[in-house]
Specification:
Largest sheet: 3 strands, mixed
Radius of gyration: 14 Å
Shape: globular
Distance between the termini: 15 Å
Structural class: alpha+beta
Low-confidence stretches: 1-6
Oligomer: single chain
CATH topology: Diaminopimelate Epimerase, Chain A, domain 1
Strand content: 15-25%
Number of helices: 4
Length: 142
């Protein structure tokens, strides 16, 4: 178990395994970032990280980013243009609500795995894995 901050224990191997399991079913890409920055707007921070990590460069524009900002205890779940076109704003709200329930119990790993699983299911539905699929982005927590 890695401690990203005293209040935010995350089991990296479980989160990475969830990302890899989700990506085996889709051509989409999922990243998790834990930001040391304090922010009042986690969505804006997530959008900047999305760009910084090159997530807009995926072939099908089908990346999803889950960003945690432990210091202000905030997070965001965002997707690239093709993903957002398929799911709309309601999907992101529902995923965030499910994750929040786990986070409030103090189980940050379970919250992340739940969010990854739900995003992976959406990606698999709309962006199924193809024979020539390759992993375009790293799976580790950034």
């Amino acid at each position: 178990m890695n401690l990203l901050s005293p209040q935010l224990p995350i089991e990296h191997p479980r989160v990475i395994a969830a990302i890899q399991a989700a990506e085996r079913r889709t051509s989409g890409e999922i990243r998790v970032v834990v930001s040391p920055r304090k922010t009042d707007d986690p969505v804006a921070l997530a959008q900047r990280e999305f760009e910084r990590l090159g997530m807009t460069q995926t072939a099908a524009r089908n990346g999803v980013l889950i960003l945690l900002a432990p210091a202000p205890r905030r997070f965001a779940v965002i997707g690239d243009t093709a993903v957002h076109e398929k799911c709309g704003a309601t999907f992101w709200t529902e995923v965030a609500a499910a994750m929040t329930a786990e986070f409030q119990r103090g189980d940050f790993t379970a919250g992340l795995v739940l969010g990854i699983d739900r995003c992976g299911a959406l990606l698999a539905e709309h962006f199924p894995r193809t024979g020539d699929d390759r992993n375009e982005l790293p799976d580790e927590i950034a």
